Each structure stands twice: as structure tokens, then as C-alpha cells.
């Protein structure tokens, strides 16, 4: 049988197309998973042992998943064990180890060019359906909760992306989550003022749970502008500042956005109440003569939850 030039050309194109299609189909199978990548890299051997001990190998080996893992190297794990007085990985309670490891995982694949300065929800949970948060800052590199640095980014794997980090990321309480976010620096300055009679950092680092309605920096700027005698947070009278800070805290409850009841009284640590109107596009706190919009919700810590608001509430 004779083939003309046109037929030969078409046959060649078809053959090449099948070849490249086959290569594309094979490529994901050739690429390691998150677990495979760690197994292939000696500097992540403790991470592999930790995933095995916490029964997370299957979850992170799933090729149908799309995840981001901030992977601590061996030095990071060794420092974590020493800091917590664990002689070896075997001494870490399995439930604790699993929670810590899941705190390093996001449920979506986020390469470094997609990461933003904001709070992210991890796969670790405060309670069922309540993911623990961490704060990621992209100014001058990538830093998590103010003290963990990404040291190797964008390791692509079949089921997501890996960023190596220099420390094990400890699940954070609400104080750590506030300290990490520079947009709460005025709130932190207020909470840590040395002449306060209450040690708010110690209180809010306790078991809790707490719900904190956290004013942003601009909210504090607006508060200071409302009184000509107040040029800085240090100018606010101690008794006034303490009452204001307590008015932003609900003690004994982890109240997430979905738990808020429309116009129900909310009893604060200060002793007074306010209500929250859910009828609009954003929840609005009605606190006597002043109101505040809740501009961000459900920043979940290990001992409570934070909601950001745009106005400092006055009891």
C-alpha cells in the first residue's frame, strides 16, 4: 500500500500527538506526593516519622487532594522536641502531634505568588468544623505567626505544594494571633500598657475560652481623635482603658460568627452588654451610643476566637 505525502504527514502528527498526550498523562504519576517528597529528602525524615506516628500518611499521600504543607525540617523538629522536654518523637502524645502537624497544612494549594498577608485556616481544629488559624505575613519573605520563616518555597508535588519552614509552628492562642498581626499593634499596645492593674496578656493566654472583638489600628486612631487630650494610648486614663478592653471580651465562650444570635444581649468581661444586628451585609455591634462593624470573623485560636471590628466600643 502506498501513502502519499499528505497521509504520511497526518500519520506523523497523529503519532506525535499520541506521544505527547501519553507524556502528559504520565507526568502526574511520576511526580511524588507530599509524603513521597518528604521520604525522598533526608532532611525531612523526622517529618515522615511524625506523619506515620500521627496516622496522617494516607491523607497526605492522596493524589486527589490539593494541599499546602509548611514542612519543618529535621533541625526544626529537634528544636521543638528539646523546647518541650520530649526526649524523642515517641514521647509526644499522638493527639498533640496530630494537631501540630495538621496546623502546618492548608486545604488548598498555595504557591508563594498566591500567598497574602492575612489569617489562614489550617486543617487543625479547635472543635469539629472550627479550624485553627495562623497569621501569614508576606512582607520581607514569608513569616508565620511572627516567628516562623519559610526557607524553601514552591516545591511542587502531585497533590499540592510544599514550603519548608525553619521551626515547628505551634498552634497559637488568641494573644499570639493578635501579636502577629501588625494591624492590631495599637490593641497590643493597649493590652500591654505597664500601668494597667490587670495583666491582660496573662488572662487572655489562659485556658479560656474567650471571644475577643478586636479593634483595628484605625479604630484606635479614631478613638484618640475623639478626645483632644488623648495623643496616644498612654493618655487614656487607666480606669477608662481597662473598662474599654474588658468590654471587648466575652469570657467563657468561643462564639464564632455562626453562633451569634441576632440582637441577643452579649455579656462582656466588663459586666455590661451589647447586641449584634445581623440584618445587614455585615454584622453590626450596637453598644449604647456607638456602633462597630465586624469586618473579619472567626480567627480561631487554641483558647478562643477573634473577630475584628472597626470601632473601639465604649461601655
Summarize the structure in words.
This protein is an alpha+beta fold. The chain has two domains: 31-165, FAS1 domain; 174-309, FAS1 domain (Roll), CATH 2.30.180. 32% of the residues lie in helices and 26% in strands. The protein contains eleven helices and 14 strands. The protein has helices at 5-30, 34-39, 45-53, 57-60, 74-83, 94-102, 174-180, 185-191, 200-204, 217-225, 238-247, and strands at residues 67-72, 105-106, 118-127, 130-137, 143-144, 148-157, 160-165, 210-215, 249-251, 266-267, 273-277, 284-287, 290-301, 304-309. The strands form two sheets. It has a seven-stranded mixed beta sheet. It has a seven-stranded mixed beta sheet with strand order 9-8-14-13-12-11-10. The longest helix is centred in the first third of the chain and has 26 residues, at 5-30. It starts with a helix and ends in a 6-residue tail after the last strand. Mean pLDDT is 92; it is low at 5-27.
Amino acid at each position: 500500500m502506498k501513502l502519499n505525502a499528505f497521509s504520511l504527514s497526518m500519520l506523523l502528527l497523529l503519532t506525535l500527538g499520541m506521544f505527547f498526550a501519553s507524556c502528559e498523562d504520565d507526568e502526574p504519576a511520576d511526580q511524588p506526593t507530599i509524603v513521597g517528597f518528604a521520604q525522598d529528602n533526608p532532611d525531612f525524615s523526622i517529618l515522615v516519622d511524625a506523619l506515620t506516628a500521627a496516622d496522617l500518611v494516607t491523607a497526605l499521600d492522596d493524589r486527589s487532594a490539593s494541599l499546602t504543607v509548611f514542612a519543618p525540617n529535621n533541625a526544626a523538629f529537634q528544636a521543638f522536641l528539646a523546647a518541650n522536654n520530649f526526649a524523642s518523637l515517641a514521647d509526644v502524645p499522638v493527639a498533640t502531634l496530630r494537631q501540630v502537624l495538621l496546623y502546618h497544612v492548608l486545604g488548598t494549594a498555595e504557591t508563594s505568588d498566591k500567598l497574602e498577608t492575612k489569617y489562614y485556616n489550617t486543617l487543625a481544629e479547635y472543635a469539629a468544623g472550627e479550624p485553627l488559624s495562623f497569621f501569614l505575613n508576606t512582607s520581607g519573605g514569608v513569616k508565620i505567626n511572627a516567628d516562623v520563616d519559610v526557607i524553601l518555597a514552591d516545591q511542587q508535588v502531585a497533590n499540592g505544594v510544599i514550603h519548608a519552614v525553619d521551626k515547628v509552628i505551634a498552634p497559637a492562642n488568641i494573644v499570639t494571633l493578635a501579636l502577629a498581626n501588625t494591624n492590631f499593634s495599637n490593641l497590643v499596645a493597649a493590652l500591654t500598657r505597664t500601668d494597667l492593674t490587670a495583666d491582660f496578656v496573662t488572662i487572655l493566654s489562659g485556658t479560656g475560652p474567650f471571644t475577643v472583638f478586636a479593634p483595628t489600628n484605625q479604630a484606635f486612631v479614631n478613638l484618640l481623635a475623639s478626645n483632644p487630650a488623648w495623643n496616644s494610648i498612654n493618655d487614656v486614663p487607666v480606669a477608662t482603658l481597662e473598662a474599654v478592653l474588658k468590654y471587648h471580651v466575652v469570657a467563657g465562650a468561643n462564639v464564632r460568627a455562626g453562633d451569634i444570635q441576632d440582637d441577643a444581649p452579649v455579656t462582656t468581661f466588663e459586666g455590661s452588654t451589647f447586641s449584634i444586628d445581623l440584618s445587614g451585609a455585615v454584622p453590626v455591634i450596637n453598644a449604647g451610643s456607638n456602633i462597630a462593624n465586624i469586618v473579619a470573623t472567626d480567627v480561631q485560636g487554641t483558647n478562643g476566637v477573634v473577630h475584628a471590628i472597626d470601632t473601639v466600643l465604649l461601655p
